[in-house]
Amino acid sequence: MTHPDPLMAPRPRRADAARNVQSLLAAAKKLFDEHGPDIALDEVARRAGVGNATLYRHFPTRQDLIVAVYADEVTLLCEQGADLLESESAAGSLFTWLESFVIHVATKRALAMAGTADAAQRRTTLFDHWHASMRSTAQKLLTRAQHDRAVDSDLTVDNMLALTSAAALAGSGTDHARQLLRILWRGFAGAQALP
């Protein structure tokens, strides 16, 4: 039996593997949103159009897949924040990002918890990384809004995120969480109107 020469491995296979990962993440995100993180992994593979072996090659455990999906969500949230820094309105940028953040916390918390349920140390490490990324994004948007005098200069990023997270967790759904954020915004902005 002959073995393929590793130097002759075709480059498209790497591109195919990357596409498979993206297809799996997209399918898993949609299914997790629709049915929660306990959906059968066979269904994720089927929806992505790949075999189970491909799924397990990239994501050996359910937790690996959940963590990858949640990490992708955090990345998208932070990328949105970076894009908003280029927007004209500092107040509008901060408020838009906080709306996305409140929806993220309200809808993705169970996913984050499910992906880190099996190891306390892993949870701490991953949560620290995710929180640091979101905090850094929020700080940049807040600093810009404070520079423009759009929000209270005494507002700290930690207090802003804690209150916004509380609104997400206290809300009876995303619409209610967004209403609570609008009430909080009045306190964040002081005399400023909603953007």
Verbal overview:
- The protein contains eight helices and no strands.
- It has helices spanning 11-35, 41-48, 52-58, 62-84, 90-115, 120-147, 157-170, 174-189.
- With 195 residues, the protein is mostly helical.
Shape type: elongated
Instruction: Determine the fraction of residues in helical runs and give it as a percent range.
Output: over 70%
Q: Can you tell me the CATH topology of the largest domain?
A: Tetracycline Repressor, domain 2
How many helices? The count is 8
Content-based structural category: mainly alpha
Order of helices and strands: HHHHHHHH
Q: For the residues shown, what is the average pLDDT?
A: 86
Task: Describe the main β-sheet briefly.
Answer: none
Output the radius of gyration.
Answer: 20 Å
Number of domains: 2
- Total E-strand runs: 0
